[in-house]
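TASK: fixed-backbone design
INPUT:
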């Protein structure tokens, strides 16, 4: 018989203003996309990141698909990315016929190894996609230098990176294009939802057209044209206004949400330090140039077998600790649509050894002590 989960991995947080905003949107008789709350969300993202243009989407997946369309990817084009990421990072480009080229990750952060990117570049390479794992920034200075040297755009998959920074620069606003996720498992949420950050001013109009089903409706609404019509390929990437209404309540509290999560993150970090000192596990590494958002707290144990046994201990204790990505390069679709550049040793090891611990606003210190206690009991033994 399965033990009921008493301490879940995640609980969606609400600020208290979400339902008021939703009611206000309904009262104003505006439920479809690009209403007042959508505009407020756009303004907030642009002000807090410095991006040239923010566009809400119905998911981060949709924002990545827009990136592929903006780059006009064709069959046979190649896109460099890590294998240790969610399937959407690859799918968005495979849908256009492009080939994901998987590069190994760093052993410290789990981010793409910037030292391996240049060797993966071929005449078919059209973009570099970086994933800021756990809200910790990739080594963006070196990555941007490589991209500039080879005249390649950089796409930041910052799904986990809202309110994170690299050398003071907000994630998502460093490369030519960036994407956010507001899925309920993220820090700032709207249930489902995402955003495209357009940092290349020359792509703003195209992004608006693609997002509006390939029409210039955005220019029509701004009074720049007297009618709108089909201009290019595109799709319906807009979220409804109720999603934006919910999201704006969260964005208004983004700093306090981040501060609270950092407190919880630091409790884990301090409590698990003795086990890292003994070599029983490894805690997350945060490089000095990175300011993270406490999106997740994970541990790396010594082997996959230890990981499996410890996860079983968590389950039998009613605690929702979980592992994370199955590397894309080993998946059936990854083998079919992508290719690996060199052995992805760190990717495999990182994926096999990682356990994510519960972290959500409302998690009590006593509950965190229970989580740490399971680690202590097992690794102490």
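OUTPUT:
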């Amino acid at each position: 018989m399965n033990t009921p989960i008493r301490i879940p991995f995640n609980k969606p947080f609400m600020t208290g203003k979400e339902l008021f905003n939703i009611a206000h949107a309904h009262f104003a008789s505006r439920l479809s996309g690009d209403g007042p709350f959508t505009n407020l969300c756009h303004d907030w993202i642009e002000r807090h990141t410095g991006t040239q243009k923010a566009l809400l989407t119905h998911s981060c997946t949709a924002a990545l698909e827009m990136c592929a369309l903006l780059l006009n990817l064709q069959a046979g084009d190649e896109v460099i990315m890590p294998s240790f990421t969610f399937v959407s990072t690859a799918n968005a480009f495979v849908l256009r016929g492009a080939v994901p080229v998987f590069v190994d990750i760093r052993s410290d952060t789990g981010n793409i190894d910037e030292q391996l990117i240049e060797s993966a570049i071929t005449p078919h390479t059209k973009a570099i996609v970086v994933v800021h794992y756990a809200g910790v920034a990739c080594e963006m200075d070196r990555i941007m230098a490589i991209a500039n040297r080879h005249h390649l755009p950089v796409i930041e998959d910052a799904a986990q990176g809202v309110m994170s920074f690299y050398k003071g620069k907000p994630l998502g606003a460093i490369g030519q294009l960036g994407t956010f996720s507001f899925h309920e498992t993220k820090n700032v949420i709207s249930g489902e939802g995402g955003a495209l950050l357009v940092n290349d001013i020359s792509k703003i109009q195209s992004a608006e057209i693609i997002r509006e089903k390939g029409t210039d409706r955005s220019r029509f609404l701004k009074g720049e044209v007297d009618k709108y019509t089909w201009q290019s390929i595109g799709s319906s990437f807009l979220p409804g206004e109720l999603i934006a209404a919910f999201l704006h309540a969260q964005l208004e509290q983004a700093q306090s949400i981040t501060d609270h999560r950092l407190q919880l993150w630091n409790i884990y970090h301090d409590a698990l330090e003795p086990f890292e000192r003994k070599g029983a596990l490894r805690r997350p590494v945060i490089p000095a140039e990175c300011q993270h958002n406490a999106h997740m707290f994970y541990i790396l144990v010594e082997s996959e077998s230890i990981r499996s046994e410890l996860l079983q201990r968590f389950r039998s204790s009613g605690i929702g600790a979980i592992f994370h990505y199955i590397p894309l390069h080993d998946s059936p679709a990854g083998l079919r649509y992508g290719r690996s550049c060199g052995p992805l040793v760190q990717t495999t090891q990182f994926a096999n050894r990682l356990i994510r611990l519960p972290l959500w606003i409302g998690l009590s210190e006593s509950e965190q002590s229970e989580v740490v206690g399971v680690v202590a009991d097992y690794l102490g033994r």
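COMMENT: The chain has a mean pLDDT of 96.
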